[in-house]
Amino acid sequence: MSAPDAPFSAAIGLADTPVDTHADTHADALAAVPFPGYRKPRRAWSPRGFTAAMTASAVGLAAGTVVFVGVSARLERTPGWADATLDWLQTHAWAEDPVWIAGFAVAVAGLWLIAVALTPGRRHLLPLEPVGTAMSAYMTRRTAAQLLRHTALSSTGVLDARVRVTRRRALLHVDYHFRDADELYDELDAALEERMDTLLPSRPLRVDVYLRPA
Amino acid sequence: MRRVLNRVLLALVGLLMLVGGSAAAARSRGGFHGRLGDALGTAHKPLITPSQTERLTEHGWWWWVAFGLPGVVLAVCVGWFLAQSRRRLVKALRVADAVTVDGHALAHAVEDDVRRIPDVISAQARLVRRRHGPQLKLAVRAEAGAHPYAVLRAVRDEAVEHGRTSVGLERLPVDVEFRTVRGLPRRHLH
């Protein structure tokens, strides 16, 4: 599937999946596209700009305060609050509750920063199969949910549908009336699977449908 | 590059905080025993001892270490912070020896082309610098129920291709974020 010389249609598995007239055209188009430079799409990685800016501000502020206190002490013009802080540090022991609570909080914050540094972020974006070389495409999970919801709503007897899309699955809660539940389930299952294929997700989502009679 | 730098520095700060915070909490709960406990002191000692306070007022090498290091950290943090606000947009693109094209103009031209694609409501394009040349970042908002493949294909074949050939670039990588507006598609509204 991810072999470099595999045609794009084979890579995304659309050529054998006729959906509707609109999608058939696209499947044909896909089949006609040789795609030698195909690469499996990866998740979008966030630059972590906001977190970096906030961390730089916090650490810079702390370091700046230490430098300020050090220089003012050297000039023998220590501010009152610095003296008060020094007194507090001299009169309180390590065993006191605020110390271990602060230490624990700092450790948890550190763990969170490590997690932020090592994870891709941008969880709201689903990577899509690229339409051609030199193209990366993403879709928001909300958009995928809306498109699946529209598909569900187009079935006869469906009153409403609430959709939640995670990175691995799509969960639909469908309210219906005047339909046989099994028949509607089969119809929705097929329609949603087909729709899912046309959304071009790099990793096909598992679609779970829950029916509720109105 | 900025992404890698941010993540390395975040991991470094996180690691220092994790180790420092854990050590402080462990010492506070009397977690250090044996030689380590002797070296670090007991949990009933004050946070700063009088001897440490005296050292702070000394003007020897220790002072430079105690306050010079935070000075270096401060300088690094200022640079790190400023790096976040720097925009990496391509201002001008050299087309021929004496001809340059404004990067914004190219981005706007691509935007206009994308907006002409059926089902597309709005588009935002930015031409940013990357190691291997300019890259187009494109955010496309389409009608509810729009077909992603149709839109993406048109973006590539019409808008981006037009933009690429107009400035004579061999390659114009594009990063597209596709989303639809909220609401029902038109066919449901009739």
From TrEMBL, chain A:
Residues 108-212 form the DUF6286 domain. Keywords: Membrane, Transmembrane, Transmembrane helix. The chain crosses the membrane at residues 49-71, 99-118. Pfam families: DUF6286. InterPro entries: DUF6286 (IPR046253). This is DUF6286 domain-containing protein. It comes from Yinghuangia soli.
TrEMBL record, chain B:
This is Alkaline shock response membrane anchor protein AmaP. The chain crosses the membrane at residues 61-83. Residues 1-25 form the signal peptide. Keywords: Membrane, Signal, Transmembrane, Transmembrane helix.
